[in-house]
Amino acid sequence: MCSVFEPRTNRLIAGLPEDARQRLLPQLEGVETSQGQVLHPSGSQLGHAYFPTTAVVSLMYETKDGAPMELAVAGNEGMVGIELILGGGTTPILAVVRNAGQVLRLPAQTIREEFARAGSAMHLLLRYTVAFITQVAQTAVCNRHHSLDQRLCRWLLMSLDRVQGDELAVTQTRIANMLGVRRESVTIGAQRLQELGLIQHARGRIRVLDREGLETQACECYAVVKREHDRLLPEALEDSASSLSPTELPAEVPAAPTTILEQEDASQVMHVATLEHRVVEVSPVEAEATAEPPLRCRA
């Protein structure tokens, strides 16, 4: 069974003026992503911009010796591929799916043409760019000046903002790679937060028990980034996520071809994966005078 994609669960798509949205909807393709999937590798030519709806994407830099670090994260508030609207066709940044889910992708030429119209869509994308730059800059400040516990709280809160529920499917090894620290340091930090009653962590899972307490323990970086996103970006379509029935989720399908670099750390394995992503074919958007139908894949 195929997924239903509601475009306006992404805040940028939701914030587009009606005329721009109608131009772009026929070009949007729904894509089901898996954890570790690479949307675009470092240095590659960007062929698409991606607008996450339920997926969360990490924007990372990997050093020559293979050490990764997360620079920013994109979820349903934004997009992956701002380089396309700023005149860059390539980027040294690696875009990797952190949390599996759905994204909408738009051909590079299409988003360039819409941006070149210099209308409301251009101003919206520029506002998102400001918010994105703020996130990257604040991440650099946080990594340099704040404690691991504060950075861990910031990372958990930013992750929680982009998923449904209070639980994150993530290993401590993966968090360590995102923060650029040793796994043992994350283990100690997570244990301290658990002792404070803020989280409950088990193998591959972290559940947030006290969000307000987590915000109190975090540094100011989380609040700065969230305030800028809320100030600059529109809200997503209200309650749109609740309109998706569990029966509309895709059936399990064979995995896509994978090239995996495995780094064993104690009892855990970190996968830095390059996968060929699976594109769900999308039917043309039907023109309706009173309603904007969700995107559906074709059987």
Which value, in Å, is the CA radius of gyration?
Answer: 19 Å
Which ranges are low-confidence, i.e. pLDDT below 50, for 5 or more consecutive residues? 237-291
End-to-end Cα distance, whole Å, is: 8 Å
Q: Indicate the structural class.
A: alpha+beta
Number of helices: 9
The biggest sheet amounts to:
4 strands, antiparallel
- Domain unit count: 2
Attribute tags:
Jelly Rolls; Arc Repressor Mutant, subunit A; 2 domains; 4-stranded antiparallel sheet; 15 strands
Account of the 3D structure:
This protein is an alpha+beta fold and 299 residues long. The chain folds into 2 domains: 4-145 and 230-296, Sandwich (Jelly Rolls), CATH 2.60.120.10; 147-218, Arc Repressor Mutant, subunit A, CATH 1.10.10.10. Helix content is 34%, strand content 24%. It is built from 9 helices and 15 strands. The strands form 5 sheets. A 4-stranded antiparallel β-sheet has the order 4-8-2-14. It has a 4-stranded antiparallel β-sheet with strand order 3-7-5-6. A 3-stranded antiparallel β-sheet has the order 9-11-10. The longest helix is centred in the middle third of the chain and has 26 residues, at 120-145. The radius of gyration is 19 Å and the shape is globular.
